[in-house]
Specification:
CATH class of one domain: Mainly Alpha
CATH architecture of one domain: Alpha Horseshoe
Structural class: mainly alpha
Largest sheet: none
Helix content: 55-70%
Strand content: under 5%
CATH topology of one domain: Serine Threonine Protein Phosphatase 5, Tetratricopeptide repeat
CATH superfamily of one domain: Tetratricopeptide repeat domain
Shape: elongated
Number of helices: 24
Low-confidence stretches: 1-35
Mean pLDDT: 88
Order of helices and strands: HHHHHHHHHHHHHHHHHHHHHHHH
Distance between the termini: 66 Å
Number of strands: 0
Amino acid sequence: MRRIALFMLLMSVAYGGAAGFAQESSSNSGAQVQGVTPEASNDAEAQPVSAEVTAAEAAIASSDWKTAQAKLDPWLVSHPQDARALFDAGYVADAQNRLDDAASLYRRATAANPKSFEAHLSLGLLLARQGKQDEARPELVAATQLDPGEAGPALKARAWRALAKIDRPEPGSGDDTTQATDDLLEALKLSPETPADTLLAASLAEQASEYDVAEAAFRRVLATDPKSQPANTGLAHVLIAQKKYPDAEDLLRGALEKIPDDPALTAQLVTVLAAENKAEALPLLQKLHAAHPGDADLTSMLAEVTAESGDYAGSDQLYLKLLAANPVDSDLLVAHGENLVHLNRFAEAMAVFDKATQIDPASTEGWSGLAFAASHTSQPSVALHALTMRSKFLPENASTYFLWATSYDSLHQRAQAVVYYHHFLDAAAGKYPNQEWQARQRLQLLEKRP
């Protein structure tokens, strides 16, 4: 598979410790990419360079942006199709953080010279930086298909790397990662691996559920940079996904010794401790939440762990705070409703579940909650409707069979009740002794009737 090929390609390059990694420029900004300068223009139909443009490029070399702009602006008024001058002007605008002006000038440069590698690359990187991925992609693709000239293959590799980031699916989307992997492979054919490459390869492998590949790549980064927060969190996420909780706990505790109080690592440790049913999870999360009270994700996590500890009232206060800011979030409503059920406030819970299912008709937890709450408020018809809706998305289980049976029983629909009591007993298999006793008692009465 190509992801395996990518990993093998990364592994095949020899490095001498951390210094062996090729270091990318810390900035992805437009023309401000190492190796891309106005002097490196690759104009296939080169024209003599005017004195004005030469002077502007000398100013650019000294980062004297105002002088360069003063030279280029009047020149472009009389020479609006000068591709090199347009690129230079875009470079200057980019350096001055005049991003809209820079994008416009880069576009004019690509129109004046469609074969300008650096103009397409700089425009693509600028648009990507602005979050305009759909506009950035064709510019970067164009750059990968052009001769970089004096800029060299390393800058074409930059275009491929940028494409890999654009083509990477959103985490959790389940979309195919092949295109992003292929982009990164192309970059690695042109320039040495960087730590960012390894991290991206690892995250792509993780998204493809290739956990062994992802784990090995994350560990490679940590071997050279034990304090790498992305590598530590990435590896922890892989271990958690595989339910390797003891390994994840050891990793996270070690990482937090190197990066104390890191919120992402701490949140992951809380997740692991909660999965291991360790009481340490709750006070650790409370401390983290106190340090970041406005973080909705942490508040949600604390609400969940608080509920799991049995403090449903305390959990519900947190969910109510979240719902005040997001009143139509069906997941928050379901969690609120579940707390109300545990607090025996069934009528309130029923109203909350009803709202959740109106917002999200595919909420199986909402329908399950509504059926349970309705059964406890003597509304069997509502319970049956909720069970019918739930059954469109999930198979039945012992709990839902029991709700079907008792709801039909309450409506005096004897035949249906008998069928579902038998289904419940078959599915329960001794796991619900109280309900099984009740089911057998009801069947004795119902099956004796004519």
